[in-house]
Amino acid sequence: MMMMMFFSTRTLMLMFLLSSRHRAHGEDPDLMLTHYLIQMEISLRSVRDSTLTLTLLNLFLLLHGVSSDTEFEISVPTGVQMGVYGEAVHLSCVFPVSDSWDADRIMIMWQHNQEVVHSFFHGQDQPQYQSRRYANRTSLFHQEMKKGNASLRLDRTTLEDVGEYTCSVSTPLGWQRKSFPLKVAAFYYEPRLQISVLSDGHMEVLVTSEGGFPSPSLQWLMGNTRDVTNHTHTQLSKDHHTGLYSVNSKLILNGTVNSSITFIMKNPDLDQTIRRSIDLFSENGPIDQREQRAGPIVFSVVVVILLTVIISLIILQHQMMKKEKSRNPSESTIESSEALIHQTAAEKPLMDEAESVSELLDEGRSRARQLDKKKKCSLFIRIYLED
């Protein structure tokens, strides 16, 4: 602490000497004071004692006739300011001015926590005192300065710009500094939809989006009324370079295809709400899993019955031919016609049965094709965009 006070006293003595020297050369001591105040402010940033810094600044300004009286009041936002990631943000700061305007006697300095964001004195910007992170990203409204506008434009905002900003203004009328917080948020991109049919007959609906900040709130609705968010699986990842989030949320549906789903994602910091309603339906209606399994079973049963009948006919025909050969030739000639008639009469019911089985087989094949067509029916997706 003693070392700090010694440093401050030595700086104070130097200020008086420099002020006297510049006054002797006909230069404006107040103008030179602002220059050294800036240098002292930057050097004291390493001390990180804002109370000491403010006290010294007030002391120097008071000694040189620059008062921080309450009559000199600057205006800054009273609440949290919001910036959009990658875009420009205006940080407002307004100060009172007199009828006589002299830009050479104005000092404006913007700080972010302990960093110098932008400084203006000697009638021009002083980028040499600026933190490297803000190079080529800041500007003042010089044409509006004579109207009391000390606002700062900060371009290409990032998440590193979040924090407290301080506007300091010194004029012949007085000096004051005020602070306010800045938040930065990013809009989420249009979600991507992916629908997959799983091997077990279930359906997976996957929604992904990225490039947003902070983390969003998600909600899934079934039929626009029933909340099924607790039945979803959501993953959130963060980019290590930008700090922005990516999100993917998955909902598993059962075998029912005809359904309406609503996906809602909100980014409250930017009042962003993305609402997507999805209608899923097939051209042949819902698919019953029991019907899907019934097709192959019916076809298999019909094939087995048909094979049984064919084998039975072959065996019967073979036995009848063997029986005919065992008879004598004379009886064979006489009774050949009758045997043929009886054989035809005996085979007719079997042929009728075979024909009936064949028809049953055709019917089974037709039903299997219909069920297979249902299984492979076209899936229609209707998506409603409701921003």
TrEMBL record:
<dbReference type="GO" id="GO:0006955">
    <property type="term" value="P:immune response"/>
</dbReference>
<dbReference type="InterPro" id="IPR053896">
    <property type="entry name" value="BTN3A2-like_Ig-C"/>
</dbReference>
<dbReference type="GO" id="GO:0031295">
    <property type="term" value="P:T cell costimulation"/>
</dbReference>
<keyword id="KW-0393">Immunoglobulin domain</keyword>
<dbReference type="InterPro" id="IPR013783">
    <property type="entry name" value="Ig-like_fold"/>
</dbReference>
<dbReference type="InterPro" id="IPR013106">
    <property type="entry name" value="Ig_V-set"/>
</dbReference>
<feature type="transmembrane region" description="Helical">
    <location>
        <begin position="297"/>
        <end position="316"/>
    </location>
</feature>
<keyword id="KW-0325">Glycoprotein</keyword>
<dbReference type="GO" id="GO:0071222">
    <property type="term" value="P:cellular response to lipopolysaccharide"/>
</dbReference>
<keyword id="KW-0812">Transmembrane</keyword>
<dbReference type="Pfam" id="PF07686">
    <property type="entry name" value="V-set"/>
</dbReference>
<keyword id="KW-0732">Signal</keyword>
<dbReference type="GO" id="GO:0007166">
    <property type="term" value="P:cell surface receptor signaling pathway"/>
</dbReference>
<dbReference type="GO" id="GO:0042102">
    <property type="term" value="P:positive regulation of T cell proliferation"/>
</dbReference>
<feature type="signal peptide">
    <location>
        <begin position="1"/>
        <end position="26"/>
    </location>
</feature>
<dbReference type="InterPro" id="IPR003599">
    <property type="entry name" value="Ig_sub"/>
</dbReference>
<dbReference type="GO" id="GO:0009897">
    <property type="term" value="C:external side of plasma membrane"/>
</dbReference>
<dbReference type="InterPro" id="IPR051713">
    <property type="entry name" value="T-cell_Activation_Regulation"/>
</dbReference>
<protein>
    <recommendedName>
        <fullName>Ig-like domain-containing protein</fullName>
    </recommendedName>
</protein>
<dbReference type="Pfam" id="PF22705">
    <property type="entry name" value="C2-set_3"/>
</dbReference>
<keyword id="KW-1003">Cell membrane</keyword>
<keyword id="KW-0675">Receptor</keyword>
<dbReference type="InterPro" id="IPR036179">
    <property type="entry name" value="Ig-like_dom_sf"/>
</dbReference>
<feature type="domain" description="Ig-like">
    <location>
        <begin position="86"/>
        <end position="170"/>
    </location>
</feature>
<keyword id="KW-1015">Disulfide bond</keyword>
<dbReference type="InterPro" id="IPR007110">
    <property type="entry name" value="Ig-like_dom"/>
</dbReference>
<keyword id="KW-1133">Transmembrane helix</keyword>
<dbReference type="GO" id="GO:0042130">
    <property type="term" value="P:negative regulation of T cell proliferation"/>
</dbReference>
<keyword id="KW-0472">Membrane</keyword>
